Amino acid sequence: MINLIRSGSLFSGVPYAYAAVAPRGALVFTAGACPLDDRGEVVGPGDVRAQASLAVANLATALAEAGATLADVLKTTVFVASAERADLVAAWDVVSAAFGEHDAPSTLLGVAVLGYPGQLVEIEAVAVAVAAG
Predict the structure, then answer these.
(1) Class of the CATH domain delimited by 3-129
(2) Helix 48-65 and helix 85-99: axis angle, to 10°?
(3) Which of 90, 96, 94, 109 has the alpha carbon at shortest distance from 17?
(4) Closest by alpha carbon to 123, among 36, 39, 14, 41?
(5) Where are the domains of the chain?
(6) 124-133 burial: b if 16+ Cβ within 10 Å, else e
(7) 75, 79, 76: which is closest to 109 by C-alpha?
(8) Is the Cα torsion angle 35, 42, 82, 30 positive or negative in sign?
(9) How many helices (H) and strands (E) does the chain have?
(10) Which residues 6+ apart lie within 8 Å of 103 measured at CB?
(11) Contact, 114 vs 81, CB < 8 A?
């Protein structure tokens, strides 16, 4: 079981744990999960929420194939190709909803561009495998 660390010394109003400790086991490092469909095309042109939703689903699939789930994630990094805070918040709302109470540490970044044409969201994670991959 992952131990999410909350600090009594740091600001308590953040929507995530400050750190996470993995039990003994194999660490899983994912590539950035992109909003690509099964044909390799970016879904939801211009729609941060739609892209974040598929990126989370693709992340969950990659984790499952590595023997982990979203609940086994130690940390995420969420990249949003936008300088608008509202877009970052929109992506975060989708990611946060998918993780539910498992509010593992995360970094949310606005970036200039991502790898695929029209791509607005990418999510990478570090997790611990609890089952054979």
Answers:
(1) alpha beta
(2) 40
(3) 96
(4) 36
(5) 3-129
(6) bbbbbbbeee
(7) 79
(8) positive
(9) 2, 6
(10) 4, 15, 16, 17, 96
(11) yes
Beta bridge partners of 5: 19
- Structural contact between residues 103 and 74, judged by C-beta atoms closer than 8 angstroms: no
Length of the chain: 133
In angstroms, rounded to a whole number, what is the distance separating the alpha carbons of residues 81 and 74? Answer: 24
pTM score, whole prediction: 0.87
Alpha-helical (H) ranges within the chain are 48-65, 85-99
Q: Could you report the per-residue pLDDT of 9-29, keeping only the tens digit for each?
A: 888 888 888 877 777 778 889
Chain-centroid distance of CA 39 in Å reads 22
User: 73-124, pLDDT tens digit by residue?
Assistant: 999 999 999 999 999 999 999 999 999 999 999 999 999 999 999 999 999 9
**Integer CA distances (angstroms), 103 to 20, 54, 75, 77, in order:** 10, 19, 9, 13
The percent helix, strand, coil of the chain (3-state, each to 5) is 25, 25, 45
